[in-house]
Design a protein that fits this description.
365 residues, Spore Coat Polysaccharide Biosynthesis Protein SpsA, Chain A, 2 domains, 8-stranded mixed sheet
């Protein structure tokens, strides 16, 4: 009988699984302690260091069933995007209508990046019943006609009425959080991505279902965590930030923006806070660092489940090697995404064949 694939496979290092289990136990213990002392969960305590994330399990499902209420937002929130007071979605869809996806994927893309979007569609981003995948773009006079044609064909673009530009990345990130908040409140997990990454979808779904919880989580941000990053002041750096924009020498701990796994309650509180705060253009620093720190939200690292470039090359050149991972390295070329997808498909086929042979042998015996 075909066995369900687990994230941790025989012959692969157990460290990543132990790390995830330890995080989950920490979250559960923190939740039990909080319930014992206060009688009900109070997720966001100002002035206190936030505990780890909480997994929703059958025993606490009732207490944690509603991640947020839209009534907590101002009456003009829907038409506002930070300091844009006439915001609207110029291209929109409602694929979450009457569904409860395990995973909602929000992929940030530039209007010109049709080849990258197509690679995702043809490889790891193919539709399944467990996930919904959308690409988020801003306005582009040069590519608007092509975007509209692309949207007619694939029906997976979401566009807001702001210029798609390098310094407008925070608009795009907050727009994606807005869309998830208003249009997909039933998603158990939300994964924000760039369009040049690879996600090992079978392993990701297994990770969410077994290593986390199929019912979802609360207070969750898992990512490639950056600590004590120095603020760039040099005029030669594209990441230069003036002292007026950010006066500190170091950023607070934040998530690298290429892959961030959120729980829906965190999406909501970060979105609500971003709507109140002055605009800062480095979106991952602003949203998962500055705002997360203000809200006493603790990020958790998934570094051990991200392939390094060296790991990726070893896997591609030596197909017998087994390694647990959820993500390829960031900033991948299109041919590297296709190669990783082929590797995963080949490995899954080999597992299926091995199990089929084993079942046949048992039946004959």
């Amino acid at each position: 009988m075909l066995e369900k694939r687990r994230l941790h496979t025989p012959g692969s290092p157990p460290c990543s699984l132990i790390f995830v289990i330890a995080l989950a136990l920490t979250g559960c213990i923190s939740f039990w302690f909080h319930i014992e002392n206060s009688g009900s969960p109070t997720p966001y305590l100002s002035g206190a260091s936030a505990p780890g994330y909480l997994l929703i399990l059958p025993g606490n499902l009732t207490q944690l069933s509603h991640p947020y209420s839209l009534n907590q937002l101002p009456s003009d929130d829907k038409s506002t995007l930070i300091d844009i007071k006439d915001f609207k979605f110029t291209i929109n869809h409602n694929p979450c209508n009457k569904t409860q996806p395990l995973l909602l994927l929000l992929i940030h893309s530039a209007p010109a990046n049709f080849p990258k979007r197509n690679v995702v569609r043809e490889t790891w981003g193919q539709k399944t019943s467990d996930l919904i995948l959308l690409f988020f773009v801003g306005l582009s006079e040069e590519y608007q006609e092509e975007l509209e044609e692309e949207n007619k064909k694939y029906k997976d673009l979401i566009q807001g009425n702001f210029l798609d530009a390098y310094r407008n990345m925070t608009y795009k990130h907050v727009m994606a959080l807005k869309w998830a908040t208003y249009h997909c409140p039933s998603a158990k997990y939300i994964l924000k991505l760039d369009d040049d990454v690879f996600v090992h979808i079978p392993a990701m779904l297994d990770f969410l279902t077994h290593d986390l919880s199929p019912l979802g989580a609360r207070r969750l941000i898992l990512c490639d965590l950056k600590s004590m990053a120095v603020v760039k002041r040099s005029w030669r750096s594209k990441w230069r930030v003036s002292p007026r924009e950010y006066p500190g020498r170091h950023y607070p701990a934040y998530c690298a923006g290429w892959a961030i796994l959120y729980s829906p309650d965190i999406v909501f509180v970060l979105y609500r806070e971003a709507q109140k705060e002055p605009y800062f253009w480095i979106d991952d620093v602003h949203i998962t660092g500055i705002l997360a720190k203000k809200l006493n939200i603790t990020q958790s690292s998934l570094d051990s489940l991200v392939l390094t470039n060296e790991n990726m090359q070893n896997l591609l050149q030596n197909s017998y090697i087994q390694r647990d991972f959820l993500f390829g390295p960031p900033n991948l070329m299109e041919n590297e995404i296709r190669a990783l997808y082929s590797l995963i498909n080949r490995n899954n086929t080999d597992i299926w064949r091995a199990c089929t042979i084993k079942d046949t042998s048992v039946q004959m015996a």
